[in-house]
Amino acid sequence: EAAKVAAADATSVYPATGGGDLLRACIPARNGLIFVRHKSGPVYYWYEALSVQYLRTDRPDFEEARGEGTAPSLSVHDVVVDDLDELLWRLRALYAVRNTMGARVVALGGVWGKYAQDAPDIAKSKYGMELIDVGYDGFGPRIASALNDAGQVARANEWTDRYLRIAGTTLETERSFVVNAFVLYGLFKDLMAEHNADAFTIKSCMSTILPMSKTTACLTLSLLNDEGLLAFCESDFVVIPAGIMLYHLCGYPVFMHNSTFPHNGVVTCAHCTGPRRMNGDRYEPVRLVTHYESDFGAAPKVEMPKGQQVTFVNCEYTKGRWVGLRGTVEDNPFYEICRSQQDVRLDGNWKKLLSEVRDSHWLMVYGDRLNEIGYAAGRMGIVWDDLSSQMA
Fold first, then answer.
1. Which residues lie below 8 Å from residue 67, measured CB to CB, with a gap of 6+?
2. How many CA atoms lie within 13 A of 269 on its CB side?
3. Which of 82, 179, 271, 298 could make an S-S bridge to 219, C-beta 3.0–4.6 Å?
4. With contact defined as beta carbons under 8 Å apart, do 32 and 55 qualify?
5. d(CA 312, CA 297)
6. Counts for the chain of helices (H) and strands (E), in that order
7. Residue 61's pLDDT is what?
8. How many Cα atoms within 13 Å fall on the side-chain side of residue 274?
9. Which of 284, 201, 276 minimizes the C-alpha distance to 241?
10. What is the pLDDT of residue 258?
11. What is the DSSP pairing of strand 104-108 with strand 255-257?
12. How far is 109 from 133, CA to CA, in rounded Å?
């Protein structure tokens, strides 16, 4: 009976008493947690008896050292003692992994990986993702039709009026670029609905789509993320799997961005597609300006609060290793680089970052999420290296 109950997406076992065979029957083959009490009481026998006979460890010679017994399906990292908040974030991590594996992603203009051409194949083979390639040959006429449809343009104008009335919104580009960004917003949402997709991404967003849409996709992607959808530029499947996982882990938008050379413990994060509702609720102040490389269209320059704690994930191409960092926003400059910009002071061993892969995209979320990300990464077969937990 216990073994049948354990066949779920996630199982939390609270062992009280009974023999080891009963506990093994309760422990699922995957996605399980064990919760025991110490100070929070009442304390039961398995607080004392839980051992590596029932759990894996990180030791490479673990099986040899452990001796006899069935190989455990759960590890020492799947045990929580007393702390219900820790149990909650581990359950969130399991939820994030469950919703990342097998995700369906619409890729307008094709797929690729920045400095890793095998990234789409890895996304399919390692994460079971379904990548839906939508070509511009077929989508271009839909854009032209929408821009010539009086009803769709009127709706986009209404949405533009409402958006510009949001507190902290400043228009510093042509209004028509914003209206056309809302036309794209409707078309991208339609694509996701048509393909029952969990996420959206776009390739050639700095070239092919500009003359078609008479704007840039930057603001459009920001709008989709603010709404609670998942949208990434550049079709970079080096980071998109991690971005999908982060969204489901945190429940609010993920900022995919470039990084700069770290110096004096500071790195600048910059891209033209920054979401405004990074905490899932509040709209941060924004200046709507042109896209940097083209000086065209509409791109959000989002102003993040100074003192805001953030967490980064830096994927080492497709090698199955992620580097984690935590930092604090110090400034929102306006350098001649991609428009949404933050100078962030890093915690921990930032100098080690000098020798890490840094020319791929990074991912940013609000708050300190290093523990949750590391736990989820392990569940996905990813090597996790948390630099902020290492002394500088």
1. none
2. 30
3. 298
4. no
5. 28
6. 13, 17
7. 80
8. 32
9. 201
10. 95
11. unpaired
12. 7
70-95 tens-digit pLDDT:
678 899 999 999 999 999 999 999 99
Q: How is residue 296 written in tokens?
A: 């065209």
Three-state DSSP class for 107?
strand
Residues in the chain, total: 392
Strands 169-171 and 286-291: parallel
Q: Checking phi first, is residue 139 left (phi over 0); if not, alpha (psi -120 to 50) or beta?
A: alpha
Which of 23-32, 58-67, 138-147, 331-340 shows the lowest mean pLDDT across its residues? 58-67
pLDDT average, residue stretch 131-146: 97
Q: What is the pLDDT of residue 8?
A: 82
Query: pLDDT tens, 276-320?
Result: 999 999 999 999 999 999 999 999 999 999 999 999 999 999 999
Q: Which residues of 217-244 are buried (b: 16+ CB within 10 A; e: fewer)?
A: bbbbbbbbbbeebbbbbbbbbbbbbbbb
pTM of the model: 0.95
How far is 140 from 220, CA to CA, in rounded Å? 16
What is the C-alpha to C-alpha distance for residues 309 and 261, in angstroms, rounded to an integer? 20
Of 389, 385, 324, 378, the C-alpha closest to 94 is 378
254 in Cβ contact with 225 (< 8 Å): yes
Residue whose entry in the numeric block shows the structure tokens 């790195």: 267
Going by the DSSP 8-state scheme, the letter that residue 356 receives in this structure is S
Question: DSSP letters of 8-74?
Answer: SS-EEE---SS-HHHHHHHS-SSSEEEEE-SSSS---HHHHH--TTSSB-S-TTHHHHH-SSPPPSS
Has residue 54 got a pLDDT over 80? yes
What is the spatial distance between Cα 218 and Cα 232, in angstroms, rounded to a whole number?
Answer: 10
Q: What is the pLDDT of residue 322?
A: 97
HEC states along 129-182?
CEEEEECHHHHHHHHHHHHCCHHHHHHHHHHHHHHHCCCCEEECCCHHHHHHHH
Distance between CA 337 and CA 355 in Å, rounded? 23
